[in-house]
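Annotated sample (chain length 718).
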Amino acid sequence: MANAKTPVETLTEEEAAAELAFLAAEIARHDELYHGQDAPEIPDADYDALKRRNEAIEARFPALVRDDSPSRRVGAAPLPTFAPITHSRPMLSLDNAFSDDDVRDFVASVYRFLGRLPDDSIAFTAEPKIDGLSMSIRYEDGRLVSAATRGDGTTGENVTANVRTIAEIPDRLPAGAPAVVELRGEVYMAKSDFLALNEKMAAEGRQTYVNPRNTAAGSLRQLDASVTASRKLRFFAYAWGEMSEMPAETQSGMVEVFRNWGFPVNPLTATLCRVEDIIAHYRAIGLARPDLDYDIDGVVYKVDELALQERLGFRSRSPRWATAHKFPAEQAFTTVERIDIQVGRTGALTPVARLAPVTVGGVVVMNATLHNADYIDGLGNSGERIRAEGHDIRVGDTVIVQRAGDVIPQVLDVVMEKRPAETHPYEFPRTCPVCGSHAVRERHEKTGRLDSVTRCTGGFVCRAQAVEHLKHFVSRNAFDIEGLGARQIDFFFGAEDPALSIRTAPDIFTLAKRQAGSLAKLENIDGFGKVSVRKLYDAIDARRAIALHRFIYALGIRHVGETTAKALARAYGTYDAFRTAMTEAGTLSGEAWAELNTIDGIGDVVARAVVEFYKEPRNIDVIGRLLEEVTPQADDTPASVSSPVAGKTVVFTGSLEKMTRDEAKAMAERLGAKVAGSVSRKTDLVVAGPGAGSKLDKAREFDIEIIDEDGWFVRIGS
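Output written by the structure step:
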């Protein structure tokens, strides 16, 4: 099968058939997750991309359209838990528009299909697209007789008993209603009700919910209708299926009839003719989105006149007379309620916007990072203006929030038209909000530019830094101690009893010893027990011997991430060699300093951070006590004993023509060599390609062996 990024126009028929088979299965799986299990696995944007890819391939290869094609079905099969109900008229999905041009194309297609000039004579309704669960409710002779989910569009689940518990759905229609009414709309949970439910669940120590849509769907699918009744579900009516007679001639007229019958209808629905007015209404609804008490993910446009809807008819799974204009994926509008400051393990003061809750990418977002003081002021790392016209961010602002995957949400821009008159620029704190120590922005020695990050000068005196350092120490890529997560670290750090307290990393490894002679047993504290405590001690003991790179990473040295820690471990081999070298490099001159700077991936900033860390007496004290409890293991570089470059320090410089720099580095390391980023007297071999400059000159100065790329392959026997 071709790669999913392969342009459709270049696919062969064989590749197209294989990819259509894959897409049919993959989209069906996501339909089941979303409609059948209320547990979507991917964002709407990714799902839409799969469907657009399928449609594009089918358009190019119409003979390959499959019987199980996503273009021929809607939703997912009904769950076997509920009795099936066959819809008298299918519940079809809508095509999507993702841009203003898509909307213009939709309107133009309506005029074109009807053979009319685009003279703004056709009216369209525009209504918010509610992010809930589609529902079809059937009334006969004015009485509610059944209610069904959309299911696969033809057959849904019978949830009649549960729908009867929703207060906004009348059990009877008023006199004069048609004999058969199949009314359709969306069941949803209000944001305020969702937050109240989560607060209740949290207070009871139970698992909270992810978002209102899934919670509403799960609540509606309860076998016990009393559970549904307790969840405060709501409803908007906006469509219909079978009707024994039509009480109105337009879409807007039908919605008004529903309102008169006692159903809630959305007050933001408008009837418009000009396409630019339609788009303007979309933008207005987008701006109103943060203030709504329900989630929406777009705006639906429908031809208003029912006779024209009849003429336009349907495609295989969607009407020609309607489309859904989706909001940009992973973005939403909301308001900044306050700005708080969080203090990290390196003392960085990070501003966090506390937001009015909004659903972004299927998750309720209430917080977003503001990065630093400059970002709040509308400045980039180099002092350049960011956001539209460099707008600053203030408490009370309406903002655009973005979230991509699992990335922490961030504020993209400010909607200046909605800025309250009484707002004031945010004043970044000059003292640490946790310990009260002075907070500073360091100035880079070479550039003279202020660091973008404000830092607390309190060090381990600052509780926030100490706690975050411990959480880093036990994290997955560091010591990875099972059973000692963030919640447990908070507990142990706050414990007053010396037999329970963990304030620094060495305290972790003395916990069992201190507990043995104490009356305040950990196993007697809520949340622990004999088995869990034993497992915790075992997990701690299992980390008394640890790989050198994990040990270095766990120290929490500023700028030293996992990759850098591995580079240092490879370069020095043992902890004693590493510690000695860092101490000797403390003068920022001499052979040890030069060697540190030659390590590939270690620049001046990282090198300074490491040697400064080893100048701090408190750090030396903590490490000394830690080494009484744990033993860093010598680096186990996978050297090939038969390799002619094993144990040698190699520098690659100039343009490599037969391999990329990354490939060269990986190859050398597989053969047991150490790859350095610059040349020193300890360099054994320089591989020089065209354009080699100062490194080549330095190699000649130090009389180091120099070979070209071909010579490298001869040397390693490749």
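Annotation: The chain has a mean pLDDT of 86.
Annotation: The CA atoms of residues 373 and 427 lie 9 Å apart.
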